[in-house]
Amino acid sequence: MTKSIDRFDEFNAARLRRDPAYDGVFFVGVFTTGIYCRPICPARMPMTKNVQFFTTAPAAEVAGLRPCLRCRPETAPFSPAWQGSKSTVSRALKLIKDGALDEGSVEELSDRLGIGARHLTRLFKKHFGASPLQAAQTYRIQRAKRLLNHSNMSMTEIAFAAGFGSLRRFNAVFSTLYGRPPTSMRKK
Questions:
Q1: How far apart are CA 188 and CA 71, in angstroms?
Q2: E strands along 11-62, which residues?
Q3: Which residues pair with 28 in a beta bridge?
Q4: Dihedral through CA 157, CA 161, CA 167, CA 172, nearest 10?
Q5: How far, CA to CA in Å, does 91 sit from each of 31, 35, 45, 78, 120?
Q6: CA–CA gap between residue 171 and residue 73 (Å, rounded)
Q7: For the segment 65-89, what is each residue's pLDDT rounded down to a tens digit?
Q8: Whether the Cβ atoms of residue 132 and residue 106 lie closer than 8 Å to each other
């Protein structure tokens, strides 16, 4: 039996720890029993020489294994492979909310996700209805609006804290979106 998966040692260590962070990321195939399990399965731990790892439940089934009746691997939560491209967009949105595009580019963001920039933009248009840059701009405006309402920071400080490169850009984007300058939105 070959151990063809690239991350065998990482997955095996996670299996031995029964690490919940890997639940849905990979599945453990046990050829001596003919079943496959989730890495968190409470069943007796098989010997390492008898296991093989699969990134999807269907791949384990194609290899001739059946799902474990204890851990029910076919229902593993949060399996990125099953969520498909929505998972990629969700990961990208989290990075954007954390400021990935405040100083970085869409190309750098797509590299972090392991896909091309054009493909990332297509996925955003399909699942989000906007480009990654438009999403980043929306999140910047939302941060700025919160700071306008809940801080005593100057407009320049708010612009930079929200992720804008300049006060001028902040004012232009805000005025375009709301039809008035950001100073008019500040709660007194």
A1: 56
A2: 27-30, 35-37, 51-54
A3: 37, 53
A4: -140
A5: 34, 31, 32, 12, 11
A6: 52
A7: 988 888 878 666 555 444 567 778 8
A8: yes
